Amino acid sequence: SNNRITTLDLSFNSITGTIDESYCSVLLMINNNKMTGKIPECFTCHFNDAYMKGYFIGNQFDNLDSIGTCSKFIKIIIIVTKPALSIIGQNIGYDVSDIYSNPQISFELLIEGNSNIIAFNYKLNRIIHNIKFKSTDQEFTLTPDPYPPLLSNITSNNQILLFKGLYYSYDIAEITITIGGKSCDVTDSTFYQITCTLTTYPNQLNNVLGIIRVDQLQTKFNLNLDKRDGNEVFNNYTSCLDNCESYSGNKCNYNTGICECPQCFSPNHYVSSISPTYEDGGLVIMNGWFGDINQDLNITIGNQECKIETISPNTITCNIGAGTGKKDVTVFQNGITWKSFNFFIYQLKQQICLNKCTDTSHGICDTSNGICECKSGWIGFDCSSPSNYNNDGNTNSTVHPDGSTTIINHQTIYNILITSLLELDINSDTVKQYPLQNNWNITSKDKNGKNVIFTQILNETECQIILSIQEIENDIQYSFAGLDFKLDKGSIKVSVSIHNYNYQSPLNTLQLHMISNISDTTSNDCNSKPASTSTSIFDNQVLNYILINKDNKILYGRFINRAISDGHTTLITTSLISSQNESVTIGINIPHCETSCYIDPDFSVLINSNFKTNCDKSKNHTTLIAILVSCIGVATIIILAGAFYKKSTKSKVIVFKLKKKIKMAK
């Protein structure tokens, strides 16, 4: 329609009749008339807004008190025509102040009611916006710069397929999916996922070529389709990122998912490590692979552009402004976008020590690294354990062939296990999982079994994982990833390195799962206490901890939020997967590293200050006292009872005689 009227005020006119949908393109003010029938849903679906509903009061409409569902909402897209940005769709409202955007977009003009709203002076950037419409309570995810659809995961339930990823559409009419030349009919779609039905299967089931097309942009992928008992398993698909084949002569290798450029050597870049800055901003160092061609290079951390200082094939330095917390990192060059969620963490200048080192008489906190410096007589990560209690030789550790470690102290048994390695996609969904326990091979072991090295090759891969477990026989100073700290005698140092892992996508990362728990033991002595767990896990802290407390003894696990990725130190995070009274599962989040990743946690069992060293003697002495007190108590009760009986009998006689005298007097 060429109609440019955006508002039509017909209130207080005694108008009769009905309203049809031809009025949906204008903000209609029709209150206080004599109109009847139904209000079109293009208006009623905005009736969460009292002002909108007020434009229709004072009539005899059948559905004035009903709120529509905006079921005819077809699509919403962002179109940028310099210097303006437009939102085009259906049922998007009549008031620019009704729209909220994060990051913020200042919408200024209603071009056509309920279908076209514009923002001027918009600076084009590669940012994903969350757009919310207050009147309909609907929220959408959009980007102003069109990208080809990005796949991260495909799952199925019978013939229904679910595609997860980015840069899809809310309009199913502009999405087509074919698998082996067979159409998968799209039934639902958002920015992040698409649901379709594959009614006819292709003749070829392995390495099937698929194409997903959104509007004018498409991505090819390969998958294995295994049809058994009505269940389909989709895996091993590959896709090239963004608009690979239309930039600088690039070609997509659909067997590997790598965007290749044999003649121009345009890189399929990634970031494997980041050296961040403090919360007031500063220089950021990124290591990885960026190649020799860096056309249109742009780096975004959170919502800020990181201004580039230097570029080399393996390292980029840039300056970022002030901020806090975790931020996404996006690197764009040569028409290709690489992104990692929550990869950058602003650092605190003042680190916090575990439990504030218990007390100033126990230790002092070094706020530069969050490590307690214990005073004489105290040891432990928080200086809470008396040193004289923890050197009695009652702590023993055993490394088992399955890669687990057992620490026994005064009948309390603690276990440390590395259970699995997960590959996570950009949405943190698991795309691969490898069980590690019971698959280790011992490659080195000292005669006492205190230092053991295990290795294993992940099933059907060339990835090697090396596990080193060492019992510390004497207090030592140790250094890892630029951090110096002390390892106490009897503690267990666990080192894990992962080599040559083949990721399904350059956007994917790894997560290593570790379990610490207590075996089922029974203790009847005076130190018997039920098991409990606690954690101290913060992304912006250098050190994270888990604690398992039982029978006045504590298993401490210390996790350094740093790793060595492809030879460079980088920050990592630790996630609490599960926690129960006697068990804690931790996920160590490892970045995308091509050649090697190293992590280095350590554990120790310490006795707390409530522990009683002479529990048995104390118990026997207490028992004798209890028996003696009991005997004296029984004798006393017998004597008192006899005396009371005599006194009671005498009282009864006196009362009887008094009663008798009173009776005689009468």
TrEMBL record:
Residues 372-383 form the EGF-like domain. SUPFAM superfamilies: E set domains. Keywords: Membrane, Transmembrane, Transmembrane helix. The keyword Transmembrane applies. The keyword Membrane applies. The chain crosses the membrane at residues 624-645. It holds the Pfam family TIG. It comes from the Eukaryota. InterPro entries: B-sand_ComC_2nd (IPR057015), ComC_SSD (IPR054484), EGF (IPR000742), EGF-like_comC (IPR053331), Ig-like_fold (IPR013783), Ig_E-set (IPR014756), IPT_dom (IPR002909). CDD domains: IPT_PCSR. This is EGF-like domain-containing protein. It comes from Dictyostelium purpureum (Slime mold).
